[in-house]
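> run fold Histidine kinase
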Amino acid sequence: MRLVTTSSVEAGTILAKTIYNETGQILLSEGVELKESMIQRLNSLGISYIFIKDSQTDDIEYKGTLSDPIRRKAIQTINSTFLEIQKDSSISSSFVVEKASRRLSELIRFLMTELGSNKELLNLLSDAYTYDNYIFTHSLNVTLYSLALGLELKLTPKELETLGLGAIFHDIGKLQVPIDVLLKPGRLTEEEYVAIKEHAEAGFQILRKVQTIPLLVAHCAYQHHERIDGSGYPRGITGKDIHFFGKIIAVADVFDAVTSNRVYRKAMLPHEGLEILYAGSGTLFEQKIVEAFRLAVAIYPVGITVELNDGRKGIVTGQNIGLGDRPIIRIMEHKGEQVPPYELDLKIELNVVIAECDTAF
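> ok
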């Protein structure tokens, strides 16, 4: 299979990976021949990239960190839990959240087990999802990225569980933001931007009243938009005053935000998201955490076409543990000329680097 931009696909191309929406319903099944109307529909949904079948890469298979059924079940758990909080918050917010936290704590322990037993790099190319429910998918992805970072940074199981709960609840305050503001495709007004920014403190106020949740979890919601140079919000605090977990979730939050579909822009690919993190390393984000992210996450997904600094071109076929930016590549071209395919491991060939990605088909 090959990963390509949806906009570059032509009618008649065969889809290689089933596309689901957030509720687990199939939008398009693996093996379907794409019609022009289907491609237009995917583009209208903001689905930037898809996996397609290609005779040269039939044996290449993308495997996400979580299987499709586990991922959908996790999202549905978050979905139903958050909707319950939103619906019943007027009755007794702390009671409802306390009840929900038990369910989400169980989910986090399950995800910790899944990540701990999976020896592959974290690999999340999000399924398609509807814009009105993106908070739930985003909460799961941020939790997975945060836990992967926590594992890379050698946190204890207890610390990981607290971090995971902080990550899964980090955007709970957005349940109080008007949906038309959250999903506005154009530029926000000053008043709307203020309403968005209030979700960090709103989340803190919701969570701090829940006795069964560590206060640190509330501070994760409070601090995930703070930046170490003081340029963040809601309080503009600097590095020494931001908890380490808040700094971890900040990195996970930004990376997932830029690599996921949004109503106001299309998704970036992982290597582009990492460039955003590197640009802010040492000023916005703690350098140690950004470096850990590079080691823990698959920056170049299996199936993506890459060009190397020596003119060779190929498809990523595998990952190297602890080296998210040094994958295994099947070389297929050299300076524009077709060559017999062969494998090149960037873990071994240290003088070769990826110069760019080509996602047109």
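The domain at 2-57 is CATH 3.90.105.10 (Molybdopterin biosynthesis moea protein, domain 2).
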